[in-house]
Amino acid sequence: MGNFRTMLLPLLFVLLCAVAGGRGEAVAPGGWTPIPNIQAPHVTEIANFALVEYDKRNGANLKLEKVIRGETQVVAGTNYRLVLATKEGSSSATKNYEAVVWEKPWEHFKNLTSFEAVQG
């Protein structure tokens, strides 16, 4: 049985890299992968969830201007690390934040795990 596991683990690693890469490039398990289409509806849904959660926790009134960039990480679900351009209330000034949202869609679960101001 031990020999079978020894042969199976490298094969599983190669398959995981091939599937996770999707573009022919290897991706380390647990590593961050750029989101190819940051304008996808689901990315916008995750970004809006992050803002609503932040607003509830902090009494803020942030509005999403756009998603600047994003990455995903496969965990027990998916982590989304997004840089968001926002405006507060009726202000015309834009401020950027990095939000991390953990999602497990099969459980209808989302959690804002981090929300920090970033420069630029």
Give the helices and strands, then pairings.
Blueprint: H1 2-21, E1 32-34, H2 41-58, E2 62-75, E3 77-88, E4 94-104, E5 109-118
Antiparallel strand pairs: 1-2, 2-3, 3-4, 4-5
Number of helices: 2
What spatial form do the alpha-carbon principal axes imply? globular
Strand elements, count: 5
- CATH architectural category of the largest domain: Roll
| CATH fold type of the largest domain | Nuclear Transport Factor 2, Chain: A
Largest sheet: 5 strands, antiparallel
The CATH class of the largest domain, by name, is Alpha Beta
Strand content: 35-45%
Number of domains: 2
Tell me the structural class: alpha+beta
Q: Low-confidence spans: pLDDT under 50, at least 5 residues?
A: 4-25
Helicity range: 25-40%
Strand arrangement, major sheet: 1-2-3-4-5
Q: What would you say this structure looks like, in words?
A:
The structure is a single chain. With 120 residues, the chain is of the alpha+beta class. The protein folds into 2 domains: 29 residues; 88 residues, Nuclear Transport Factor 2, Chain: A (Roll), CATH 3.10.450. It is built from 2 helices and 5 strands; from the N terminus they run αβαββββ. The chain has a 5-stranded antiparallel sheet with strand order 1-2-3-4-5. Strand 3 and strand 4 form a beta hairpin. The termini are far apart. This is Cystatin domain-containing protein. InterPro entries: Cystatin_dom (IPR000010), Cystatin_sf (IPR046350). One of its GO terms (molecular function) is cysteine-type endopeptidase inhibitor activity.
